[in-house]
Amino acid sequence: MEKVDEIMYSIRQKEEQVEIFQSQIKQLEIKLEKLFYAKDKQYKVLDQFLESQYKRKRKYEEVLEISKNIRFMKTHSARVLDIVHGSNAQQTERKLELSKRQIEAEIQQTHIEIEQVRSTLGRLEINIDQLYYERRKLSM
């Protein structure tokens, strides 16, 4: 009877591990949902930034075209266009793109973690089934 008790103890331990792994999967899936939400937000921010830059550029290009003979307007429009095309705007765009790529990498990493935990969970469940089979053989 001692061997059956050992098997039952081992089964209980492994079932507790199953619960832990299932909890990990749920936490990772919640993290994944949050990452997808952040990714959507980041895409929207980037799109809005690029659209805003495009509109400003078009507006001041039109003003520049119209105001060729008005020195103040021409200078002002040229300065604004420099700002729109300047290093700050490019740096902001690069940072937004980098942030987007980092979120995508984190999503990919989280998918990998989920698959690893599921794989471990699958092996654990097979092991539990084998232990139940051993217990049935001993009980006969």
Kindly summarize this structure in a few lines.
The chain has 140 residues and is an all-alpha fold. 95% of the residues lie in helices and 0% in strands. The radius of gyration is 30 Å and the shape is rod-shaped.
Let me know the largest β-sheet. Answer: none
Order of helices and strands: HHH
Helicity, in percent?
A: over 70%
User: Unreliable stretches, pLDDT < 50, 5 or more residues?
Assistant: none
- Mean pLDDT level: 87
Count of alpha and pi helical runs? 3
Q: Tell me the strand percentage band.
A: under 5%
Termini distance? Answer: 12 Å
Task: Report the C-alpha radius of gyration, rounded.
Answer: 30 Å
Alpha-beta classification: mainly alpha
Shape: rod-shaped
How many strand units?
Answer: 0
Please describe what this structure looks like.
The protein is 95% helix and 0% strand. It has 140 residues and is an all-alpha fold. α1 packs antiparallel against α2 (71-85) and α1 packs antiparallel against α3 (87-139). The longest helix is centred in the first third of the chain and has 65 residues, at 2-66. It is rod-shaped. The mean pLDDT is 87.
